[in-house]
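--- STAGE predict ---
source: upstream dedup step, 1 unique chain passed
mode: sequence only
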Amino acid sequence: MKIAISSTGTTMESNVDPRFGRASYFVIVDPENSQIVDVIDNRASQEAAHGAGINAATMVAQSGAEVVLTGRVGPKAFAILQAAGIKVVSEVSGTIQEALEAFRSGSAEFSHGPDCHAHTSSPSPRTGWQAESGQGKNRGCGCQGKGKGRGR
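--- STAGE serialize ---
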């Protein structure tokens, strides 16, 4: 089995990147021996205007990963991962090593849906309204987007 973990760096001591689509890297780990088997460089996604999650999900699927550990996953990326048979665990934080240990301990819950709905002011099926995120009536998805904050 391979696990893809969104990461800010390329080592087991790197932090989990909370953004799936715009994560700097995906560290592919063999959970049996805690060894890194591959690293996907996703830094180009940070310059993409659109489609970062779709591209990231496609690369992860091509890596052969069966599970993704990340902070948040948008609806398009989640759909691609789901279609590829990849299970997602979101709301993950800490280092890559800590995230892997939490997964192996059985404390991680698989997600049943995306965390952000197209970066709009609609509730997430998992977490509902994000009370302290976004701009405008405090109903942003928490993705740190560049909304106009008009709160209509």
